[in-house]
Amino acid sequence: MTPSTTSMSGMALLLLAALVAPTSAVRHMLQQSPSPAANAPSPAAAGSSTPTLAPSPLSQPYSAQAFAGNGNFSFLQGYTTNITGKPGTLDYSLQLVNASTGSNMSAWHDVPLDLTVAADGSVTFNTLVEIPTGEQAKYETMSSKRGNPIKQDELDIKDANGNVTGQAPRYYKYGPSRGNYGGLPQTWSNSNISDAVTGFPGDNDPLDVLDISSTRAPIGGVYRVKLLGALGMIDSNESDWKVIVINAADPLAATYNDISNVPQERLTSILEFYANYKQAEKKPATCFWPVAAPNVTATSGTAAAAAAAASNATSGNATQAAPACSLSSAAVGKPADYYHDRDATLQVIRRHQQDYEWLLAGNCGSKACKDLWWPAKKSE
Ligand SMILES: *[C@@H]1O[C@H](CO)[C@@H](O)[C@H](O)[C@H]1NC(C)=O
Ligand SMILES: *[C@@H]1O[C@H](CO)[C@@H](O)[C@H](O)[C@H]1NC(C)=O
Ligand SMILES: *[C@@H]1O[C@H](CO)[C@@H](O)[C@H](O)[C@H]1NC(C)=O
Ligand SMILES: *[C@@H]1O[C@H](CO)[C@@H](O)[C@H](O)[C@H]1NC(C)=O
Ligand SMILES: *[C@@H]1O[C@H](CO)[C@@H](O)[C@H](O)[C@H]1NC(C)=O
Ligand SMILES: *[C@@H]1O[C@H](CO)[C@@H](O)[C@H](O)[C@H]1NC(C)=O
Ligand SMILES: *[C@@H]1O[C@H](CO)[C@@H](O)[C@H](O)[C@H]1NC(C)=O
Ligand SMILES: *[C@@H]1O[C@H](CO)[C@@H](O)[C@H](O)[C@H]1NC(C)=O
Ligand SMILES: *[C@@H]1O[C@H](CO)[C@@H](O)[C@H](O)[C@H]1NC(C)=O
Ligand SMILES: *[C@@H]1O[C@H](CO)[C@@H](O)[C@H](O)[C@H]1NC(C)=O
Q: Which of 289, 352, 355, 372 would bridge 187 by S-S if both were Cys, CB 3.0 to 4.6 A apart?
């Protein structure tokens, strides 16, 4: 081993220690020193298109505790997170824990959404972060696992014959997340009913959310956000709304009341990501329900019925088909065509709350949702 590799591995070890061991010193360092968080767009630069973030090959072991008392967030009080396993491996697991009882808490079922509509129409609620701004590792809440821990999504490894030989952790191939990404607690997207706007059935998951604020949030962070709008995304014939919010404690939250207040370049950057990221992973292209397109009322709840009805639903602008798939850069450059506004999105959220109540009441008969229902009942 040459002296130069020794010092290199010394540095690598330090870095590795920072990545895997969330000691209080490391947490302190992560908050104080330039880290990927420091590269997140500053409030002044929030309008510029893509934040210049170095791809992070491993997750940062942020913990909610490390952020406690951080005035950049209005965190849910009374919980901590328990991280086991190394980031970047399939063993990594982040479990929410009730701080007073020490019992596991489900990130999906035991966190209140606490949706509030103010007199001026502004909408706030709690959101859960799975993938911080700038992160490429695809962390997800395990919806059918007891306690619903957050883990890295698995990808099949295949040999030359296409036989599955193992599993690897999944990363976004297209690039780092363009905001703090996660889900809305106590919501669910029913895969056996047609979405009231797109007609496509849901994806059997909680509603997805993207916080566009300037501060990078911790994995497992639960904090108040302000509703701005949504993209009516359709992924493999399933409705997969992407709700767009801003951290309620962000200085810009005071002036952002609707998606129309967000700079066009920022909206284009986010739309460009969602229009391309699945294809980058060799999956079918995503589609988007244009704002001008009429609602589709496909009643049978199947993808085939929705696809047939959708072919009828040319948007208000007759040149624009619904759903709009494989968006061109020209289309991505006109974000106002695709972002549904705050009030339309509030209706989307309310329907997903109703779907969740329906699931929780034990109404689901198919295996797909039974797997989701029992952890809700047994999360402690
Ligand atoms: C923790 O558990 C206690 C007792 O059940 C409950 O009152 C409290 O709301 C829980 N905390 C959280 C953050 O859920
Ligand atoms: C964290 O999880 C591990 C593994 O389940 C467990 O042994 C440990 O007691 C937990 N710690 C806390 C503080 O809950
Ligand atoms: C709490 O969560 C951890 C990690 O998800 C899990 O290993 C453990 O079994 C859970 N404890 C209980 C009592 O469910
Ligand atoms: C792998 O795939 C080939 C071709 O499909 C098949 O003939 C073979 O049995 C598979 N091998 C294993 C170990 O499953
Ligand atoms: C309900 O949705 C699941 C997918 O989540 C699907 O496998 C099942 O066939 C659907 N059932 C009906 C009756 O459409
Ligand atoms: C919180 O905001 C302050 C100034 O607004 C900033 O200096 C600090 O780095 C932020 N903390 C984090 C963790 O982003
Ligand atoms: C589409 O459906 C939503 C939800 O039912 C409703 O709020 C909205 O007014 C409808 N829009 C049109 C153009 O029918
Ligand atoms: C969507 O459904 C239609 C009709 O069933 C089918 O032709 C098409 O291949 C599906 N697309 C994807 C990406 O699954
Ligand atoms: C398509 O539109 C035609 C004419 O309005 C209507 O008769 C037909 O039922 C529609 N098909 C679907 C699948 O919605
Ligand atoms: C319809 O498309 C044309 C050409 O792309 C565009 O100039 C116009 O703004 C669009 N109208 C609406 C209502 O979207």
A: 352
**Atom 4, ligand 9: residue with shortest CA distance:** 312
Whether residue 313 lies inside any domain: the answer is yes
Domain of 123, CATH number, reads 3.90.80.10
Q: Is the CB of 260 under 6 A from ligand 1?
A: no
Residue 285 exposed, middle or buried by CB count within 10 Å (0-12, 13-18, 19+):
middle
Domain count, the chain: 1
d(CA 20, CA 235): 34
Q: How confident is the model at residue 258 (pLDDT cuts 50, 70, 90)?
A: very high
Q: pTM for the whole thing?
A: 0.83
CA 52 – CA 69 distance, rounded (Å): 27
DSSP 283-326: -PPPEE--TTSPP----S--HHHHHHHHTT---SSTTS-SSEES
Domain that holds residue 168: 24-42+107-375
pLDDT score for 296: 86
For residue 51, is it within any domain? no
